[in-house]
Each structure stands twice: as C-alpha cells, then as structure tokens.
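To: structure desk
From: M.T.
Subject: fold request, one chain
Message: Could you run this one when you get a chance? Sequence is below, nothing fancy, just the single chain.
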Amino acid sequence: MEGTKVPAKAKVAMVLLTRHPADIKTWLQYHLDYMGVDRIFLSVEDTPQLKEVLEAAPPSWKSKVTAWYQALAPQGEDQRPTDDYETLQARQVKAMAMAKKQCEAEGIDWLLHIDDDELLYTPQHRAVGSVLAAMPAEFNQAYIPNVEAVYPSADTKSCFREAAEFNVNRYKFAAYANGKAAVRVADTEAHPAGPHQWRDANNEEPPSIHLDAEPFGPPLMVVHFESCPFTRWEDKFYELGNTDQEKVSHIPFPFYRSSIARMQQCRAEGPVSFVQESEVRRSGEHAYKSQEPDCSESSLKHFWAQWKTEENPRLRKNDLMPLQIPWSLFASG
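Reply: Done. Structure tokens follow.
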C-alpha cells in the first residue's frame, strides 16, 4: 500500500551448542550470506577442528561469529555423560544465557537458539531480520514452528543441499514438534527455559506470538535435518546405546527409542579381539555383532530410510512440501 512504512530490518543473533557438526561451513554460509543473520554464538564441544574452519572464513564472517571452546577431555576420555540426552539441555541453556547477555551489550534486537542440524527458512525468501522486524511491539517472544527434512535416500551425503522437501505433519515427526522461540533482547528479564522457549522473571511466558497461526502460513520456519547423514545417526545412537532402559522409556520420540534399542541390540560388548574380528562389522570406531541379522549395514540403512526418507510408510503426499533454497546463488564448495 502506498505510504506504508516498511520497518527497519531487525538485528538478529543465533546461538547453538555444537559437537562434531556434519556440515558447519554450509550452515554458516546459509545463515550469514543468505538469511542475513547478524551474529552467531557457537558453544563448541570436543571439536577443535572448527577453529580451522573459522580461521579460513572470509572477514565478513569473522566479525559476526563468536566461538566459545569448551575444555576438551583428556585424550581417550569423554567428560560428557554416556547418556547425555538429559544433560544436553542444561548445556544449551547455559550457552543461551551467555549469548543473551552479549546481545544486550551489542544492541541485538532478537536472539534465537538453533542447532547445527537446523536451518531457518522463509518460504517467501526474506531475510530473517525483515521477518522479525514485522513482529508487533507488544510481543517479546516469537514461536517459530519446525518441520522435518525428508531425504532422497540413505546414501544422502550433503543433507542441507540434497533434501528437496520437508514433512509438515507434526504428528509424524521423528523428533520434537514444539518449534523454537526467538526472544526480544530488550526484554532484560527474559531467560531461557530449555532450548525451545524463554520465560520472564516470574517464570511465566512473556507476551508471545505464534507464527504458525498466521493466516497465510508461517513467514519463518525451522527446518530440522535430524539424524542426517546416515553416519551421523549411527554415531549419535551408538553413543546413546549406553542409556539405561528406565531413561529410554521416558524419551517421548518413538524414533529415538527404536534407534537406541537397535543399537543396544547391535553393539559388540567389550574389546574386539582377533578371534572376534570375524564376528563383528566395523564402521569407523564402532563394532557391531554381525551374527545379528538386523545389524548389517544394509539393514541399518533400511531402518534409517523407513524413518527419514519417502520410504517412511507413515508419510503421505499431503504431508510433504517443497524445500526451495537457491544454493547456487550464495554457497560455494
């Protein structure tokens, strides 16, 4: 409409905890060069090679990225709990609180927690700062719905680039379905209440807007590229295979429970001796009981594909929407 004033672009920051990210360079390229994120705070666990990525980054990135490197465990040890499904959130909250203070000092308008297997996505291909600048002033929290990427096959390697569609049916997600929330930094009393939301001084929800309730669809989404590629799923649930049964029973996601159960079935117990070598299959540092018919590589890939690709029998065509990202316009390598 003629004469309508377009709000100035908001300054937006993101914070995440990362450990052995699958494709952090592409993740950074997308958010900094395409989505227009102004600041990124990385809490880095056990990933010293990330320093090399940031040192080789263009100057425009270096001025926008702050990395906090957590103390590494002694070689051969891992200070994280063997079943860190629960403790992960405590570490994420710590990083969110640190980033919030930094954003207040730098004059950032909005802060969002996101993971290294997630991309902010705007169907209208707008910068995130333009979307959040349009939020009514009375709201201090914006709930951003999440969707799940669907992959071509279990042989997918570049998950961000190869996925061409996503599942919008939250009742069929493999992981969480409650989205992520951006907080208005000017709300100095707001503090993280887990990785998905913020709370006020009374531990109540601040005035909030839900973007999935917008009449023409959400202007901003979080696309979750969960457990991709296959090798990342393998690493993740091989570790989580240490989780005891009581804790497994309280995990709300059937995909997680099924993946942990499969790895508990397939993990080879104890060190692998020369005699045992013929009885196990090695994949990286993992050893599997090959005498178990469901522990072959082909069987594990079939299990993964039944959850993460169009082979998923739970998905219907109307659950899927196209994921359209013009990678050739901004991403290299």
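Reply (cont.): The mean pLDDT is 88. Let me know if you need anything else for the meeting.
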